[in-house]
Amino acid sequence: MSQNNSGRWLATAAVWLALLGVVVGGYKTVTWWKSRSQHQSQVARYESLVQRAKQLGVRPAPEPLPATANATTVSSLADTLERRITEWATTAAAAPPDAPRKRVKLALDSFSGYCLLRSADFHRELIGQGIEIDLVDDKADYAAR
What confidence tens digit (pLDDT) does each residue in 5-31 have? Predict the structure, then answer.
């Protein structure tokens, strides 16, 4: 009788473990699917903001997304880009409409000392004076400058 009883316990434990495995697997699948769809919607949002920034001529131009960016990173990048677009549009609206626009191409590299030239405040000040600046990273190719 004890052998029959221990067999039932073993079968019951196996069924419960199988049910637990199904529940955990289902939960993991649902959360993976949900995070995947959130990532895709954030990537689509970022790409639409990049297109809008290109249409407005936002400088410096937005960079492409890193291949390893998760949904949180993409969301943060999209929020930052959205703020930049708003600032750019506000600054461009504040610039005198009849002021001649001058474009200046500036070659630089990744040297941290150029951070002032990359700053949004610097770009806003120049736009207010009718100057647009294009920053081109030439990878420190001094001969080509």
Answer: 888 899 999 999 999 999 999 999 998
- Go through the chain and tell me how many residues it has: 145
Give yes or no for residue 51 having a pLDDT over 80. yes
Contacts of 114 (CB under 8 A, 6+ apart): 108
Helices 71-94 and 2-56 pack at an angle, to 10 degrees, of: 20
**In sequence order, what are the beta bridge partners of 133?**
104
**How many whole angstroms separate alpha carbon 62 and alpha carbon 46?**
10
Question: Please, are residues 46 and 65 in contact by the beta-carbon 8 Å criterion?
Answer: yes
Instruction: Copy the structure tokens of residue 113.
Output: 């000392």
Q: Which residue's entry shows tokens 């474009």?
A: 103
Query: pTM of the full predicted structure?
Result: 0.52
Name the nearest CA neighbour of 27 among 35, 39, 37.
35
Locate 50 and state its tokens.
């990049």
CB 104 within 8 A of CB 132: yes
Query: What is the helix, strand, coil percentage profile of the chain, to 5?
Result: 65, 10, 25
